[in-house]
Amino acid sequence: MTALLDEHPHLGVERVLRELSVPSSTYYRWRRAEREPCERVRRDAELTGQIKEIHADSGGVYGSPRVHAVLKRVGVHVGRKRVERLMREADIAGISPRRKGFTRRDPKATPAPDLVQRDFTASGPNRLWVTDLTMIATGEGPLWLSAIRDAFSRRVVAWETSARADADLVLSTLEYALASREVEPGQLIHHADHGCQYTSIKLTTRLLRAGVQASMGSVGDLYDNALAENLWMITKTECIRGRVFATRAEANLALFEYIDGFYNSRRIQKRLGYLSPIEFEEKHYADQATAERTNLKPCQPALTS
């Protein structure tokens, strides 16, 4: 009604109020509320602006749980339900993943045993790596993405792309991972599916030389490599879906910006206490160093005769 009177002031306030049976006190209370919004309304507007900024900074990825977690991290104390309401009113939402997998098995190859048994937990970094391949469509043809993910921190420790889904692609990913991480021989499990790339002589020989234990899940069961499949769902939902890449180079750049620029360093995860993978690893090493300093005994003074 106030908007109607603003647009047609010639109608006269009192006449309109009389026709609509609205007390003048009610009308002027509405007007006062428009000029001087209450504290809650002002606070909602302020929070909505912060929510929009956080959502945009995530590339439109974050839903209310992660937006709420980021607000908490920066010292903004607000209820989860309020964040949900404000996002709904502002028509802001995260995006949900879709599941899809691909495996081409070599019937002549002997698979490695399943050393994981669907338990994708690890006591520290470089104890369990999961790996897989996925395809990204481009105008030049398929681009194959190979990645290795650390089960402890969910960090993508290495990724490579190629126009071919062959053993060389997964081997180069492994080489990059080994070069960038401190791996103790005999302490790391490398878990994959039954794809022919992972049963190749090239890869199995390299794993043996590095002292890494090979592991494979059962045939045709996404849950046996669920942590790797989860990475593809996240990446395709948050980075690939809705985008058209004219060239493989364009897709490569998008993956670099997402994996190295956002996922590893800034994308917070509930399982990590709403830290990013890199933050989670840094906290682990900092806690480890503190514990070692605490347990360090002071030197005993030398005895003199």
From TrEMBL:
SUPFAM superfamilies on file: Ribonuclease H-like
Transmembrane regions listed in the UniProt entry: none
Q: Please give the organism.
A: Streptomyces marokkonensis
**What is the documented function of this protein?**
Involved in the transposition of the insertion sequence.
> What PANTHER family does the record tag this protein with?
TRANSPOSASE INSF FOR INSERTION SEQUENCE IS3B-RELATED, TRANSPOSASE INSO FOR INSERTION SEQUENCE ELEMENT IS911B-RELATED
Pinpoint the Integrase catalytic domain residues: 121-285
Q: What InterPro entries does the annotation carry? A: HTH-like_dom, Integrase_cat-core, RNaseH-like_sf, RNaseH_sf, Transpos_IS3, Transposase_IS3/IS150/IS904
Protein name, as recorded:
Integrase catalytic domain-containing protein
